Amino acid sequence: MSNADVYDAARQRITELARNADLNTAVGACPGWTVGDVVAHLAGGLADFTERRFDGVDTGEWGERQVRERRGRSLDDSLTEWALNRQAADGLFDSPMGPILVTEIVSHEQDIRTALGRPGERDNVAVRSALTRPLQEVDKRMRSDGLPALRVELEHGTRVLGEGEPAGTLRVSSFELLRTIAGRRSLDQMRTLAWDGDPEPWLGVFSLFGERRQALVE
After folding, report:
1. Contact at 8 Å (CB) between 168 and 195?
2. Which are the contacts of 153, defined by CB distance < 8 A and separation ≥ 6?
3. Residue 28: exposed, middle, or buried by beta-carbon count in 10 A (0-12, 13-18, 19+)?
4. CATH number of the domain located at residue range(s) 131-203 in this protein
5. Element (H, E) at 104
6. What sign does the CA torsion over 172, 173, 174, 175 have?
7. For the chain, where do the domains classified as CATH 3.30.1050 start and end?
8. Using CA atoms, how far apart are residues 8 and 212, in angstroms rounded to an integer?
9. Which range, of 136-140, 172-176, 206-210, averages the lowest pLDDT?
10. Alpha-carbon dihedral of residues 70, 179, 121, 133, nearest 10 degrees?
11. What residue stretches are annotated with the Mycothiol-dependent maleylpyruvate isomerase metal-binding domain (predicted)?
12. Residue 210: which pLDDT band, with cuts at 50, 70 and 90?
């Protein structure tokens, strides 16, 4: 499946979830946001990707602004905007931004599913595709920081992150690895994963989106 195919399938699943949900349900993975806010963020975020507007990404203000500007709008308004922005963003999916958009939407689909008590779509091509860019970034950071290499054993294959002979092994599902790298796991949760060896050297680089202080159980 292409990046566009993965994105569109996830957008359809999120639309169906949202249409049958209480939009005011709090989303624990995104403190301060509701299900409706996450949909608004996805709609507004896609516009920002298209316009190359990324101010505030490092501080979190990027997403907060999108939600703030759309508070009070109906779900239909958000979905209509999202559909229009999707058309405008068509060329992005074959660019370096394509894998980032996939990671973004798949992560937020799981955020919404957890909030609504509707788990699913954890062992599919979307989750595996969503890992592509984050694993590249982890590998890059490990090499830049001079960290020892790590073997990662997933259900669909094994890869080595970093340079040189692996100094440890992490056995983990694609879903759990995505949630970890996407900042949906606390350090204590990360330590309980199936590591061979001391995980401490790698915990920092596996928190690409910041450290989560409170455990998120899914």
Report:
1. yes
2. 169, 170, 171, 172
3. middle
4. 3.30.1050
5. helix 98-116
6. negative
7. 131-203
8. 29
9. 206-210
10. 80
11. 11-89
12. confident
